[in-house]
Amino acid sequence: MPHSRHSDEHQKLNILITGKTRLTHTLVPGLHDLGHAVSITCSPRETLFTYASQQPDLLIMAEQDDTIDTFSSIREVDNDAPALFIIDTSKPEKFEPLFEFQNVSFLPDTASKEKLIEFVHKFQRQHTQQRKHEQDAQLYSLILQSLPFPAMLFSSKTQETILANKAAHDQLPAFDYKQNPPFISSLSEEVRLNLFDELDSYHLRSLKSVNAYERFWDLSVDQVAPSVFMLLAIDVTEQRQQMQLREEMERIARHDLRSPTANIVGMSRILETEAGLNEEFQPLAEIVRKTSERMIRQIDTSLTLIRLEAGSLKADAHPFNLTNAINAAIGDLNQLVEEKGLTIACMLDDEPLQEESYIVCYGEASLIITMFSNLLKNAAEAAPKNTTITITISEDNRFITTKIHNMGEIPISVRETFFDRYATYGKKHGTGLGTYSARLIASASGGDISFTTSEEKGTTLITTLPKP
């Protein structure tokens, strides 16, 4: 589509013309026709007042006796005021002093109107580009200043900081803009040599857990322009400390707790089967074994939680029989079910689940067993005495859905936090980790957990797991 003569491809100019010559006289109609705003002044006082009030984009000055004094006064208002001087080349003594000013241009008064229009077009393109750069720089600066973490622009040629946001000054020791940017001295020589390699295409480099200023930082260095890089620094000291604490807890759980407990399980089994204990002490050995086995399961659950939360646990997913996983989870509830007189009914769609039923699920079987153990334990603890817990399984082409129903109601006060860590209500020894860990396992397995609850219909925990 052709552009109209008033195209907005370039920003229209506000032009001030002072002094009259044949050239400027013929120029004004053409500039108006191109959409530019033009003001004309005659006296120095009028020129200064108009310039101060309008701040024009371009000043065109024809030769006058007071040209130098007038322009000097304008430069006191604006150090970079751009100007075009129309000069009489036969009188160099009149315009030679103007050579001392920067950002000025010259055309002889014998030039054609077309030549002057061409200059205005060129200036317009440069002015539009400059304004865009200024606006981009202002926006860039605004974005950097709003960031809550240190952000800096620096030159790879001079190794000097160009811009640093408020967070950089607040969170880092005082630094000199003329010296190496912050963090650089904390990097190894090899990293420093390769960090600012300039490529044909822009690139981003990340450095994790850099130790600087008695803290740990994740750094990213992004080439945003030729020889200009942006450095972002995020303080990860607390996250690193938490990770170290998790690792220490995992080490304690694995080596200092689990191994001795496993020895207790082994020895109690020997006492049960080979020590020839009389009937009085036989139940005690069984209690020791079951208690130790339960402790190992709790340790394993804690280890699983630590790994799931840290994202370090990679599920060993494979097809397995979901029926076996659910039966194993039910087996962990025998004592609680017996104490409360509960009944557990398993259904496959609308039919009772048979022992030989084979429902192919996809995931890590040990994790899925832990998940269902937690959910069934939650249901058994919430169910009224002498009621039935119903497990209903259904499947489609992609997922297996398991619904665990009991007649208890989830209190309103914990419904919004039901799957949160430490969310528990009315349980004497509740930890608030059962549903939290169950949802983590479901998510890590590619599924999800939700619930419905009411006083009339009770509570249904709904689990979806992927099929192979």
Short structural description:
This protein is of the alpha/beta class and 468 residues long. The chain has helices spanning 22-33, 44-54, 67-77, 92-95, 113-146, 166-171, 189-195, 237-273, 282-310, 322-331, 334-340, 365-382, 412-415, 434-444; strands spanning 14-18, 37-41, 58-62, 83-87, 104-108, 151-155, 161-164, 204-212, 215-225, 228-235, 318-321, 343-348, 351-352, 360-363, 388-395, 399-406, 448-454, 458-466. The chain contains 14 helices and 18 strands.
Strand segment tally: 18
How does the helix and strand content classify structurally?
Answer: alpha/beta
| Distance, first to last CA | 56 Å
Number of helices, counting only DSSP H or I runs of 4 residues or more: 14
CA radius of gyration is 40 Å
> Segments where pLDDT lies below 50 for 5+ residues?
1-9
Strand content: 15-25%
Task: Describe the sheet with the most strands.
Answer: 6 strands, mixed
Shape: elongated
Describe the protein.
- This protein is an alpha/beta fold and 468 residues long.
- The chain contains 14 helices and 18 strands.
- Strands 13-12-15-16-18-17 form a six-stranded mixed sheet, covered by helices on one side.
- α12 packs antiparallel against α14.
- The N terminus is likely disordered.
Topology readout:
Layout: E1 14-18, H1 22-33, E2 37-41, H2 44-54, E3 58-62, H3 67-77, E4 83-87, H4 92-95, E5 104-108, H5 113-146, E6 151-155, E7 161-164, H6 166-171, H7 189-195, E8 204-212, E9 215-225, E10 228-235, H8 237-273, H9 282-310, E11 318-321, H10 322-331, H11 334-340, E12 343-348, E13 351-352, E14 360-363, H12 365-382, E15 388-395, E16 399-406, H13 412-415, H14 434-444, E17 448-454, E18 458-466
Parallel strand pairs: 1-2, 1-3, 3-4, 4-5, 12-15
Antiparallel strand pairs: 6-7, 6-10, 8-9, 9-10, 11-14, 12-13, 15-16, 16-18, 17-18
Helix pairs in contact: 2-3, 8-9, 9-14, 10-12, 12-14
